[in-house]
Design brief:
- This protein is an alpha+beta fold.
- The chain folds into 3 domains: about 280 residues, no CATH class; about 140 residues, Mog1/PsbP, alpha/beta/alpha sandwich (Protein Transport Mog1p, Chain A, 3-Layer(aba) Sandwich), CATH 3.40.1000; about 55 residues, Roll (Membrane-bound Lytic Murein Transglycosylase D, Chain A).
- The protein is about 40% helix and about 20% strand.
- The protein has 18 helices and 18 strands.
- It has a 7-stranded antiparallel sheet. A 4-stranded mixed sheet has the order 1-2-4-3.
- α7 packs antiparallel against α8 and α10 runs antiparallel to α12.
- The two termini are about 20 Å apart.
- Its cofactor is Zn(2+).
- It holds the Pfam family Peptidase_M48.
- This is Peptidase M48 domain-containing protein.
- InterPro entries: Mito/Outer_Membr_Metalloprot, Peptidase_M48.
């Protein structure tokens, strides 16, 4: 899930305050399917052929940052083993049978996959939910392995080093030290995404790897098409996307190119493994949507079950999670961002507000107060384009931040910010009971079933019918096959 945005300026403002979270890892080799879950694995001992020492250093340095930037720990033995087996076959096809690629499954609903130098590959459970068979997941993983073997990830990292745009944004809008700003690092990664030529090159190489490994080479174009549909669906549900759908654009031309590549290499007939039933069995029970451990949105309330706090934004705001931040956008040109910050335990919150992390702060407006037994401080800031109301609070040693943004201050804007700040409190059992956990269920079509009948099982989910069709790569009017397995999302 990514941040909703009102304009380019507001997107940049929101990006400049994002915080990093946690993920889950699987250490895989080309000759073994052993899976080790960890958050800080060292760099692989045997890295892909052609890897330079600096690549290993880069991968080792960036790996914990990536782990911090996505999700929360996700553990699913069946899915991990499936991914391990696919990667092993792809490595052999890529002439890397002895290399170790450390594949991390990130516990986030964001549809994303990417690679770092030194053999680090990342795939989200959002990707697992969107794919429908092993060949489609293999297409994604083969594409990322190709980025590594083609050394694109190193080139992207080099590009990141020369990127100055983010530094200007973070410094100009919010001030602060960009060398330590978590969001600056994340945004640099986004701005240094692979170029179109690199994506097409990785598409071609990935299709070759997947086909040689025995998977259906047409899966790449098929999955690109599903991603394109999901991107359109997401545009209505959550504007703006900083994940795979933006860094790996699914344009019609790219999809057609993938079709042509698979036909040139392997012919026009559908060949290779898809193993839809095996894939469905592996993802049955997969968590879907936001992880409750990262916080849940219930109407205009945010409830964090892990740290046990909650707050409510004014009516008219639409809340979305954005990595470890929560962003609310109102249709009248206002936004609120909630995230966390590393603050020394002995630093007064008023001093932290004045420490330079937000530009345009009016120091004379900074005050300290207590609401619901929680220590807080707040103040006002203003830049050329935006007016900010900022508040920080300390709960159980952790410091959290509210940043309210509007084109201009107003009594209504001030009242909404004040009410939100005062609503921040510890979560009670009644709050936690409102959290609804969703997961992927796999159903088998029976005689008399239709797509609409199966989709009706997702009626309680916003956009559930459309989402059902996308998750199963169906269109309205398409028949379902008796005995075939289909994905349905519902409460645990």
């Amino acid at each position: 899930m990514t941040a909703l945005s009102l304009s380019k300026s507001l997107r940049l403002g929101a990006l400049a305050l994002s915080v990093l979270v946690v993920a889950s890892c699987s250490s895989l080799t080309g000759k073994s399917v052993a899976v080790t879950k960890t958050g800080d694995n060292p760099a692989p001992m045997v890295v892909p052929e052609g890897t330079e020492p600096d690549d290993v250093v880069i991968g080792r340095r960036e790996h914990p940052r990536i782990i911090a930037a996505y999700g929360g720990v996700y553990s699913d033995r069946e899915a991990e083993i499936m991914v391990a087996r696919i990667v092993g076959r792809l490595l052999a096809a890529a002439n890397q049978p002895n290399a170790q690629f450390q594949v991390t499954i990130l516990d986030t609903s964001e549809v994303n996959a990417f690679a770092l130098p030194g053999g680090y590959i990342y795939v989200t459970r959002g990707i697992l939910a969107l794919a429908s068979d092993t060949s489609e997941l293999a297409a994604v993983l083969a594409h990322e392995i190709a980025h590594v073997t083609l050394r694109h990830a190193r080139a992207r990292t080099d590009k990141t080093r020369t990127t100055q745009i983010v530094d200007r944004v973070v410094t100009g809008i919010f001030g602060g030290d960009t060398s330590t700003d978590a969001t600056a690092n994340r945004t640099r990664e986004s701005l240094a995404a692979f170029g179109q030529s690199q994506e097409l090159e990785a598409d071609r190489e990935g299709i070759k790897f997947a086909g040689k490994a025995g998977f259906d080479p047409q899966a790449a174009s098929r999955f690109l098409g599903v991603m394109s549909r999901f991107a359109a669906f997401s545009a209505g549900e959550k504007a703006g996307d900083d994940g795979f759908l933006s860094s790996h654009p699914s344009t019609p031309q790219r999809i057609q190119k993938a079709v042509e590549t698979s036909q040139q290499m392997f012919g026009s007939a559908s060949v290779g493994e898809t193993d839809r039933n095996g894939y469905m069995a592996a993802i049955s029970g997969l968590a879907f949507g936001d992880s409750p451990s990262q916080g849940s949105i219930v109407g205009n309330r945010f409830i964090q079950s892990g740290s046990k706090f909650t707050f409510t934004v004014p009516q008219g705001y639409t809340l979305q999670t954005a990595q470890s931040a929560v962003v609310g956008v109102a249709g009248d040109g206002e936004a609120v961002r909630f995230d966390s910050a590393d603050v020394q335990p002995n630093m007064p919150l008023t001093d932290y507000l004045k420490s330079g992390w937000i530009a345009g702060l009016k120091s004379e407006t900074v005050t300290s107060h207590t609401y619901n037994g929680i220590e807080m401080a707040s103040g006002l800031a203003q830049t050329d384009q935006w007016f900010f109301r900022v508040a920080v609070m300390r709960l159980d040693g952790a410091v959290y931040r509210f940043i309210f943004a509007a084109k201009a201050d107003s009594q209504r804007f001030a009242a909404g910010a004040d009410a939100t700040i005062k609503s921040f409190r510890r979560a009670e059992a009644a709050d936690l009971n409102q959290i609804r956990k969703l997961s992927m269920r796999v159903v088998t079509a029976k005689a008399g079933d239709t797509a609409d009948k199966l989709a009706a099982q997702m009626a309680g989910i916003p956009g559930g019918r459309d989402l059902f069709y996308i998750l199963n790569n169906l269109y309205p009017g398409d028949p379902v096959k008796v005995g075939e397995r289909y994905k349905v999302v519902g409460p645990n």
